[in-house]
Amino acid sequence: MFRIGIGHDTHRLVEGRPLILGGVNIPFERGAQGHSDGDALTHAIADAILGGLCEGDLGVHFPDTDSQWQDADSMQLLSRVVWLAREQGFEIGNVDANVMLERPKLRLHIDAMRENLGRVLNVEAACVSVKAKTGEGLGPIGRGEALSAQAVVLLKKSSS
Ligand SMILES: [Zn+2]
Prior knowledge:
Elements: E1 2-15, E2 19-21, E3 24-26, E4 30-32, H1 40-52, H2 58-61, H3 74-87, E5 90-100, H4 110-121, E6 128-133, H5 139-142, E7 146-157
Parallel strand pairs: 5-6
Antiparallel strand pairs: 1-4, 1-7, 2-3, 5-7
Helix pairs in contact: 1-3, 3-4
The chain binds zinc ion.
């Protein structure tokens, strides 16, 4: 039995914040504003898993009114969501994700993101696709004011 989920996330880019994507800290003069560490890629994937489970979104499970999640490590949030899926008898099949960010270039960091995400998702990095796109100079992403991420996740019933 299979389930599919879609996730999306956007953060404003501001000075004085780290830029973290897929658990990788990327050197840049700006980072994602947000309650947690602002890892939009990891948030989009977690949202996609919750979507596949029909369990609402990240905000329901980790409310930004709860100081517990202030500057939280998003890989830990993702790990909790994977655990929730496992409790319902699901494991991750594969993930396909897009990151939309004008600068910096992400190419050199993509494989590290896939490794990190695969470890938390309990799948091979070969089952985690991360693609980097720019905004072609258009809109808030093109102007470097924001970044966003989207993800699709396939869930499959565990065989055990
Ligand atoms: Zn987010």
